[in-house]
């Protein structure tokens, strides 16, 4: 959106130069001065559209992906309608240069509002990470309880619990559960061997 604001700012500067050329006998401006504006607005459009479509696809529930993308197209239509209404309301109250600067300011304010709203959003992946951390903390407390009961199981079990506690830190919960199963099987095998002797 900042690139959109930049495009309006460049349009305002170019319009100011064109008005200056029209009011004086200066040589006409080249049409190539419009290239930076088109590059900025095209880049802004591509970055916003692709980013939103990726965001909608990754964060929307499976049953709502089409609805979210339809809502995106509706917001584009509503934005175009607001622009038409603003131009009709502004009318001749602002010069064309000031109109471009006004829209650059509106885009800048919209960017700040989007940054604020985006900072409040909780990503679907973050929710999964939070659930994994809660599960991990629960497993750690269970392991601590098991470690307190090691007096009845002996030193080898305490060593296995210490290894599991070390492995738990920074490991994905699926891998920890797999390690937990392996350690329990190894302990049962060790317990069977020591009880048969």
From TrEMBL:
Transmembrane segments: 39-57, 69-90, 102-123
Localization per record: Membrane
The organism's place on the tree of life at top rank: Eukaryota
Gene3D superfamilies: MFS general substrate transporter like domains
Membrane topology: Multi-pass membrane protein
Swiss-Prot/TrEMBL keywords: Membrane, Signal, Transmembrane, Transmembrane helix
Signal peptide range in chain numbering: 1-19
Entry's family note: Belongs to the major facilitator superfamily. Proton-dependent oligopeptide transporter (POT/PTR) (TC 2.A.17) family.
Protein name, as recorded: Uncharacterized protein
Source organism (scientific name): Sphagnum troendelagicum
Lineage of the organism: Eukaryota, Viridiplantae, Streptophyta, Embryophyta, Bryophyta
């Amino acid at each position: 959106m900042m690139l959109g604001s930049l495009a309006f700012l460049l349009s305002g500067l170019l319009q100011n130069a064109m008005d200056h050329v029209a009011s004086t006998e200066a040589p006409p401006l080249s049409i190539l001065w419009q290239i930076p504006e088109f590059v900025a607005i095209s880049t802004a459009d591509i970055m916003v559209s692709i980013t939103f479509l990726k965001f909608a696809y990754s964060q929307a529930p499976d049953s709502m992906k089409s609805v979210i993308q339809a809502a995106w197209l509706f917001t584009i239509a509503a934005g175009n309608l607001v622009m038409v209404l603003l131009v009709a309301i502004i009318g001749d109250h602002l010069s064309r240069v000031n109109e471009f600067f006004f829209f650059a300011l509106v885009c800048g304010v919209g960017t700040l509002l989007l940054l604020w709203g985006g900072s409040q959003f909780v990503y679907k992946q973050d929710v999964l990470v939070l659930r994994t951390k809660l599960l991990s903390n629960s497993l750690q407390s269970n392991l601590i309880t098991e470690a307190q009961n090691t007096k009845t199981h002996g030193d080898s079990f305490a060593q296995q619990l210490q290894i599991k506690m070390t492995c738990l830190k920074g490991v994905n919960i699926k891998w920890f559960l797999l390690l937990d199963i392996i350690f329990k099987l190894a302990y049962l095998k060790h317990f069977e061997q020591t009880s048969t002797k």
